[in-house]
């Protein structure tokens, strides 16, 4: 009987179409987490020269990082993740000074011209790393405004915490902290991490905090490029381990720390630390960088926009705001937009604003991958079950039509 067969066939086809349409509904309605480290958004990403954090100490001659001839064509994932377009409608860090302790900053670098103070050796950024970080904190992006930093209205005070090759030095870090305190910097970003604590370093950090600065520091150094197979035991690095310092680690697009990250405890925040684009001290080209210092720069920029938006809050209140509004995860993930716009329980309420009746709940994205995978699996299994039942019904109907006789050439066309 052809009409029933055609009806069942149409039913099967409709079931398959319904399963296909239902499949996207099993996935949470949010952006798909990135599973790789992209240079920038797009199908194939972009190839850019890498920005080193230090030069090879074994080289007899110091050869500075050359100017990049490549320019990024699109925005990288980190700026999308931090929601900088929305953030800049509320705060750009105007009126705030961020002291950056790293390899120095070139005052005339693209996107930073006129907003960098750098005396002596701090103006000679041979490595280029400090200038790269300064662009993430306060760069305008130059002729690429989509690559602006977190606080493009802030000023940078460049200070050296390393030698010319980029090797960290405790005495230089202490000297830089004292210079930043004397200059009354609002935020101090220490992009280097030292393996040992000493009294001079502790005193310099304490003085900076008493003077009203928010101190942000790298939770660990970047792992050595030529590491052995032995596991590194957890340890505390400095000045990130000092009381009141905001300790920052890097994260991948999916939220996890990169493989090989040095173990430590007491991390306050995670921020983008891989596949990040910024400029350098020479030329107007772009580089690709990553590591804990990159995450530290992003957190320092966030502290700057918070200080500009909430000038009456103490350094401790700024740190609390940054951590309380972060995305919940094993290590809370930086959210500068939420930090600027959220009204916290103890904060003074600005004119025209209403205090939240209950604690603010922020979106938890840490389990997005697992939830999406489970939802897709459930839909696929359900669709397969429906199709199997419909096929069984179709087979049963056909067999009954043939009077339960096996199908053959004589019965292929039906009765």
Automatic annotation (TrEMBL):
Keywords: Hydrolase, Membrane, Protease, Serine protease, Transmembrane, Transmembrane helix
Pfam families per record: Peptidase_S8 (PF00082)
Segments traversing the membrane: 375-396
InterPro entries the record matches: Peptidase_S8/S53_dom, Peptidase_S8/S53_dom_sf, Peptidase_S8_subtilisin-like, Peptidase_S8_subtilisin-rel
Region Disordered: start-end pairs: 40-60
Residues of the Peptidase S8/S53 domain: 93-326
Family recorded in the similarity comment: Belongs to the peptidase S8 family.
Protein's UniProt name: S8 family serine peptidase
Naturally occurring in which organism (per UniProt): Streptomyces argenteolus
Lineage: Bacteria, Bacillati, Actinomycetota, Actinomycetes, Kitasatosporales
């Amino acid at each position: 009987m052809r009409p029933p067969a055609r009806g069942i066939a149409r039913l099967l086809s409709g079931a398959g179409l319904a399963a296909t349409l239902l499949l996207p509904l099993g996935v949470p309605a949010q952006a798909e987490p990135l599973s790789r480290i992209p240079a920038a958004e797009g199908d194939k990403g972009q190839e850019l020269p890498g920005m080193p954090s230090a030069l090879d100490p074994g080289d007899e001659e110091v050869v500075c990082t050359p100017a990049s001839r490549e320019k990024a064509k699109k925005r990288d994932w980190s700026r999308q993740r931090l929601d900088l377009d929305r953030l800049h409608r509320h705060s750009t860090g105007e009126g705030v000074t961020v002291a950056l302790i790293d390899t120095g900053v070139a005052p005339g670098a693209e996107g930073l011209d006129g907003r960098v103070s750098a005396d002596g050796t701090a103006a000679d950024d041979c490595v280029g790393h400090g200038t790269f970080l300064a662009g993430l904190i306060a760069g305008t992006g130059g002729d690429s405004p989509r690559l602006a930093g977190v606080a493009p209205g802030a000023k940078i005070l460049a200070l050296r915490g390393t030698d010319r090759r980029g090797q960290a030095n405790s005495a230089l870090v202490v000297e830089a902290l004292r210079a930043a305190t004397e200059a009354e910097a609002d935020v101090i970003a220490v992009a280097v991490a030292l393996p040992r604590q000493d009294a001079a370093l502790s005193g310099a950090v304490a003085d900076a905090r008493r003077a009203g600065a928010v101190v942000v520091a790298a939770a660990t150094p970047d792992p050595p490029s030529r590491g052995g197979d032995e596991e590194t035991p957890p340890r505390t690095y400095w000045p990130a381990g000092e009381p009141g310092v905001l300790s920052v680690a890097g994260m991948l697009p999916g939220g996890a720390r990169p493989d090989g990250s040095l173990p430590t405890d007491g991390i306050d925040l995670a921020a983008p630390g891989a596949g990040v684009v910024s400029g350098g001290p020479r030329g107007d080209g772009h580089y690709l960088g990553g590591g804990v210092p990159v995450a530290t720069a992003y957190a320092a920029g966030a502290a700057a926009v918070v200080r500009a938006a909430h000038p009456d809050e103490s350094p401790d209140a700024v740190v609390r705001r940054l951590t309380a509004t972060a995305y919940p995860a094993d290590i809370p993930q930086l959210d500068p937009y939420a930090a600027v716009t959220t009204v916290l329980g103890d904060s003074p309420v600005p004119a025209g604003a209403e205090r939240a009746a209950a604690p603010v709940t922020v979106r938890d994205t840490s389990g997005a991958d697992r939830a999406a995978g489970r939802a897709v699996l459930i839909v696929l299994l359900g669709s397969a079950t429906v199709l199997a039942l419909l096929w069984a019904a179709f087979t049963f109907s056909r067999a009954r039509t043939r009077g339960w006789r096996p199908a053959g050439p004589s019965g292929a066309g039906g009765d």
